[in-house]
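During the first year of the project, the team set up a workflow for recording each protein of interest as an amino acid sequence followed immediately by a discrete structure-token representation. This format lets reviewers and collaborators read both layers of information side by side without switching files. As required by the reporting guidelines, we include two representative entries from the current panel. The first entry is reproduced here exactly as it appears in our internal archive.
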Amino acid sequence: MSRRKRRLASVLLAVFCAAAFWLYKGTSPADKAMVFAMTVHAENGDLLASPVVVGEAGQTVEIHLVCEEDPRAERMSLTLSPMGVEDGDLLYSYELSVAGRVKAERGTVKLAVGRERKIRLHPDDPRGVTLSLYAAPLKHPGVERYLQQRKQVRRPPAAT
């Protein structure tokens, strides 16, 4: 390669790197991190699952919980696939399976950032469930408060 072509290639590479830095500056993985908290309750109020995961904004989130007695069997699986933003709210499609209760229930849900959303599935069936979803950026001011409230609700009563 001639000296002139090498110099041109170096200049083009420098321009490309500068443009990429300018486009993505301030966008670190922490800026895209989202907290996804969910609970699944049976119709009688029993808590079936309560995972909290950190995912990336705009990416599919998959949760698979296995049975303690048989790790090959799933107790619950949930897939949240982003569909965009509508009126400032996050729009997701979901697929939920809960062993012995719900098999591959699909739908869409609109999540207001930092607010819990409840979805009742098969409310007339004794095996029906309520799915509660919460999504907010990791740096959202309400995340810590929401997670603290979840801990207090799930804390067993003190022994007397």
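The second entry, processed by the same pipeline in the following quarter, appears below.
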Amino acid sequence: MRISIYIGAIAFILTLQVNGQNYIGLHKDEITGLMKETQRDFKLNTGIINKAYNYLKYEDKVNEQTLLFFLDEDDCCTCVRLMSDYTNLNDVTDTLNSKYTRTGENTWTYKEMDVVYTVRLEKEEWYFTVITKKEN
């Protein structure tokens, strides 16, 4: 069971940010379609609505990972946050180190189609978050 969680976390990060699939800039309809096709372990959670933010919330089957796509007023993705249990931290960090250019202790960058993206890992008390967005 643990191995499948690790593989899921790594596969998600690779799919999300490396293998040509970057969700930033996509419309929410495109995101929901791609998530159904490529991330079958993640299910859309519409049970909680936060009126302060426009976002799509996905959770994995065992609730150890949560994925948030933050959307602008046109329902296009501006930021992606993957929140995960600490059991995945080493594998996720290794993947980030192998695929991106490290620019700080918990920060990486990559370039896709002349756009630079920043990937930041934030450690919280009970979980960690990987935040991906366009560099300003």
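For the second entry, the following points were noted during internal review. The first helix runs from residue 2 to 17. Strands lie at 42-44, 55-60, 65-71, 77-84, 101-104, 107-112, 115-123, 128-134. Both points are flagged for discussion at the upcoming steering committee meeting.
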